[in-house]
């Protein structure tokens, strides 16, 4: 693997770059996030590439936290924006009808799951996904006359108060928290279909036990792939189970597709992998084509709001609607969902090869072009064996790690009076699996830093902030994907050497 090192920039550009960063630090709030980990000053961008004020170029696998489905400044997006600007059309119209909005809704409905598109209504919200989450909560509460919400451990739904309550780091909770299935760090110590079965049964028990302390809720919100939670794809069978559980109890199911939508996971909407039709979909990020836009799409029988029940001054962003229409149409017409599925599978396979080389990589998982690499501590002097924790290769969602189909957790199952079962209802004898090694946020930060030195921008996430995340644009080429992997592999190798943690 070739080592990539920083190129020395001219003193004038370096001075301008450093001055801007210094003024940002002095004048902006302490709540800054990306700016702390990524001390760059973007001045130009195209596709996957960003150029900084220091003259350096970077491959951007952050993509505006998944907002840039087509990468930076894609020609079809720029053309759509210029067309609106040149037409003299108003840019601010509140919720008035316009040709631009009509075209956006038409394209959006063309892409929706058929069971929803045929009976849907759309509500334009404020410009951020968290505004759409708040609107969705308000909608289902009005429609059901109930108040509580169900959400999942590790979730992230935004930064406003209601969205935070439903997120994994909530501290003032009025939302019932349910276990989200995962293999590598299964909350039941099981993984695989058994862990998902236990998670589903836990949900049923909470809803059906009159002494659970959880009254029938107004709705359930879930992410088909938890992004900020560590890139955790929900098993398709579990998604179908959640759909049955909520439908049988008249609980509206809200799918948060803010980060997963518009082709990111290898389907236009991530719920399509499991074939379910949610009652409500929360959409933002890529649907605005890089500009601020957020909407809620929902079944028409939930449309019980009075006029003005939910509003927002900037819900009529015409430039974002034009950019979003162009983006959705381009993804749909150019097979970028299939491209994301194919390239994503190849990247996952190559990254799993890297995990076998370096024991500091505990797990590789993802779906489409939404990929996570979990960094872990080692075991003893030799740092253990790469993949310790019951890894058995990818399942239907593209995850690695977890348990075999015929292993379980006897003590846990016995203590709660449950036994695992396959889809046919056959009882399975429980067993036990080794625990994965401790997560290492320090190593993840080190990998992110080494990636940046090599001109690669990546994000971190996960429950322990130990997951290196890749969210490249759907337009990434094969050659660019190879460059991304080369730089990432170099960064991991440098970190492993620097900490005395070599190959497994």
UniProtKB/TrEMBL annotation:
Q: Where is the composition biased (Basic and acidic residues)?
A: 396-408
Gene3D superfamilies to which the protein is assigned, alphabetical? Aspartate Aminotransferase, domain 1 (3.90.1150.10), Type I PLP-dependent aspartate aminotransferase-like (Major domain) (3.40.640.10)
State the CDD domains in the record: OAT_like (cd00610)
Kindly state which keywords UniProt assigns to this record, in alphabetical order: Aminotransferase, Pyridoxal phosphate, Transferase
Cofactors demanded by this protein = pyridoxal 5'-phosphate
Pfam families linked to this entry: Aminotran_3
Q: Where is the composition biased (Gly residues)?
A: 382-392
InterPro entries in alphabetical order: Aminotrans_3, Aminotrans_3_PPA_site, Dat, PyrdxlP-dep_Trfase, PyrdxlP-dep_Trfase_major, PyrdxlP-dep_Trfase_small
What EC numbers are recorded for this enzyme?
A: 2.6.1.76
Pathway assigned to this chain's UniProt record: Amine and polyamine biosynthesis; ectoine biosynthesis; L-ectoine from L-aspartate 4-semialdehyde: step 1/3
The region called Disordered is annotated at 1-20, 382-413
PANTHER family recorded for this chain? Answer: DIAMINOBUTYRATE--2-OXOGLUTARATE AMINOTRANSFERASE
* Similarity remark: Belongs to the class-III pyridoxal-phosphate-dependent aminotransferase family.
Q: Which NCBIfam families match?
A: dat
Q: What is this protein called?
A: Diaminobutyrate--2-oxoglutarate transaminase
| Source species | Streptomyces doebereineriae
Taxonomy, top ranks, is: Bacteria, Bacillati, Actinomycetota, Actinomycetes, Kitasatosporales
């Amino acid at each position: 693997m070739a080592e990539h090192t920083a190129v020395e920039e001219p003193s004038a550009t370096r001075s301008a770059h450093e001055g801007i960063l210094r003024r940002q630090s002095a004048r902006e709030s302490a709540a800054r996030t990306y700016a702390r980990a990524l001390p760059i000053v973007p001045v130009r961008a195209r596709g996957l590439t960003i150029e900084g004020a220091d003259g350096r170029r970077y491959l951007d696998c952050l993509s505006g936290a998944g907002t840039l489905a087509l990468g930076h400044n894609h020609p079809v997006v720029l053309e759509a924006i210029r067309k609106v600007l040149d037409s003299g059309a108003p840019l601010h119209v509140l919720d008035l009808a316009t040709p631009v909005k009509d075209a956006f809704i038409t394209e959006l409905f063309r892409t929706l799951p058929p069971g929803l598109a045929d009976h849907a209504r759309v509500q334009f919200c404020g410009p951020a996904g968290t505004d759409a989450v708040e609107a969705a909560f308000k909608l289902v509460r009005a429609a059901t006359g109930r108040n509580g919400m169900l959400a999942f451990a590790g979730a992230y739904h935004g930064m406003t108060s209601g969205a935070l309550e439903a997120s994994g780091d909530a501290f003032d909770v009025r939302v019932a928290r349910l276990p989200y299935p995962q293999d590598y760090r299964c909350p039941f110590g099981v993984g695989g279909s058994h862990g998902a079965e236990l998670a589903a049964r836990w949900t049923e028990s909470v809803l059906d036990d009159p002494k659970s302390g959880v009254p029938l809720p107004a709705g359930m919100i879930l992410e088909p792939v938890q992004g900020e939670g560590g890139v955790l794809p929900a098993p398709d069978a579990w998604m179908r189970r959640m759909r049955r559980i909520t439908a049988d109890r008249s609980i509206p199911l809200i799918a948060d597709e803010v980060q997963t939508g518009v082709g990111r996971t290898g389907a236009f909407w991530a719920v399509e992998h499991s074939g379910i039709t949610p009652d409500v979909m929360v959409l933002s990020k890529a649907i605005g084509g890089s500009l601020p836009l957020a909407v809620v799409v929902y079944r028409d029988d939930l449309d019980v709001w009075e006029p003005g029940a939910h509003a927002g001054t900037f819900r009529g962003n015409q430039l974002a609607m034009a950019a979003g229409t162009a983006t959705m149409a381009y993804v749909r017409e150019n097979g970028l969902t299939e491209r994301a599925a194919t390239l994503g599978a190849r990247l996952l396979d190559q990254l799993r090869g890297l995990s076998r080389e370096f024991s500091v990589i505990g797990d590789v998982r993802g779906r489409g072009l939404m990929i996570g690499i979990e960094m872990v501590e080692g075991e003893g002097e030799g740092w253990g064996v790469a993949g310790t924790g019951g890894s058995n290769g990818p399942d239907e969602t593209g995850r690695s790690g977890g348990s075999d189909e015929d292993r379980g957790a006897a003590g846990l199952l016995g203590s709660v009076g449950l036994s695992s079962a396959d889809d046919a209802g056959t009882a399975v004898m429980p067993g036990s699996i080794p625990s994965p090694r401790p997560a290492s946020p320090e190593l993840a930060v080190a990998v992110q830093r080494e990636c940046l030195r090599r001109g690669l921008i990546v994000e971190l996430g996960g429950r322990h902030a130990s997951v290196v995340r890749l969210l490249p644009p759907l337009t990434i080429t094969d050659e660019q994907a190879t460059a991304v992997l080369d730089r990432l592999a170099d960064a991991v190798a440098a970190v492993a050497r620097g900490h005395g943690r070599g190959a497994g």
